[in-house]
């Protein structure tokens, strides 16, 4: 269960951004809507403990995320949250497979076994690009690699920021089905921020909770 209450954030010299309260059950789907600049990415960053709220509380599966210290936050995120960021942050000096392996290194674990990484890519239909550099991928392939990376450690919470922004209709459909299907199969909670009509239409069948900022 994810619960937040009185959540607010202020960028340096910016106004206080306030977010409506919400409760989201385990395995739930939240569609976060709102015009550009309404605070969608900021709320996602708060949910992923990438930012600390100025006010309010955020409770994820019994953990008071708002009161974690910086190191605890990083450890909590690495363990529990899969982030599909708006910009993919794939390193172009590494192969696709090594980009995935970075997840293990970042979490200070033993390096992840190549077979498991390949299996993760294969599940998303992109095993054949494992040896390529990110700039050699189509937008849809890059998004699927980023999704494989987000799901690698079996997160209970998956956060996607405008996952279809740069994709054509076919690629958008594929990525959305994979995103929704794979989080649902794992019983993970999914939060998707978007102002893309196609996302709302596609995810409507899954009866999402909707929050409009
Ligand atoms: P959205 O994702 O809905 O487009 P954002 O969460 O990115 O909205 O931004 C919300 C508001 O915060 C906007 O007014 C934006 O200009 C402002 N903002 C976002 N990031 C920063 C930042 N790093 N510094 C100052 N203001 C920011
Ligand atoms: Mg945004």
TrEMBL record:
GO MF entry, a single one: ATP hydrolysis activity
Q: Which UniProt keywords apply?
A: ATP-binding, Cell membrane, Membrane, Nucleotide-binding
- Decide whether keyword Transcription is in the record: no
* Listed SUPFAM superfamilies: P-loop containing nucleoside triphosphate hydrolases
User: Which Gene Ontology cellular component annotation is one that this UniProt entry carries?
Assistant: plasma membrane
Q: Where is the ABC transporter domain?
A: 2-211
Q: Does the keyword Acetylation apply?
A: no
Q: Name one Pfam family in it.
A: ABC_tran
Q: Which InterPro entries match?
A: AAA+_ATPase, ABC_transporter-like_ATP-bd, ABC_transporter-like_CS, ABC_transpr_LolD-like, P-loop_NTPase
The domain of life for this entry's organism is: Bacteria
- Which PANTHER family is this protein grouped with? IMPORT ATP-BINDING PROTEIN
Protein name as it appears in the record: ABC transporter
């Amino acid at each position: 269960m994810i619960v937040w209450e009185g959540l607010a954030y202020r960028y340096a010299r910016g106004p206080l951004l306030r977010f409506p309260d919400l409760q989201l059950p385990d395995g739930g789907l939240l569609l976060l809507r709102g015009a550009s600049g309404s605070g969608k990415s900021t709320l996602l960053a708060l949910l992923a403990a990438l930012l600390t709220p100025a006010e309010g509380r955020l409770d994820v599966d019994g953990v008071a995320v708002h009161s974690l210290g910086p190191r605890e936050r990083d450890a909590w995120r690495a363990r529990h949250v899969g982030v599909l960021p708006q910009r993919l942050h794939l390193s172009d000096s590494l192969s696709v497979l090594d980009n995935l392996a970075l997840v293990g290194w970042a979490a200070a674990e033993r390096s992840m076994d190549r077979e498991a990484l390949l299996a993760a890519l294969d599940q998303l239909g992109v095993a054949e690009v494992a040896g390529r550099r990110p700039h050699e991928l189509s937008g849809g392939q890059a998004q699927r690699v980023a999704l494989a990376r987000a799901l690698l450690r079996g997160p209970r919470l998956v956060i996607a920021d405008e996952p279809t922004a740069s994709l054509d209709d076919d690629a958008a459909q594929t990525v959305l089905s994979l995103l929704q299907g794979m989080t649902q199969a794992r019983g993970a909670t999914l939060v998707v921020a978007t102002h893309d009509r196609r996302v709302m239409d596609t995810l409507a069948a899954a009866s999402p909770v909707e929050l409009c900022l």
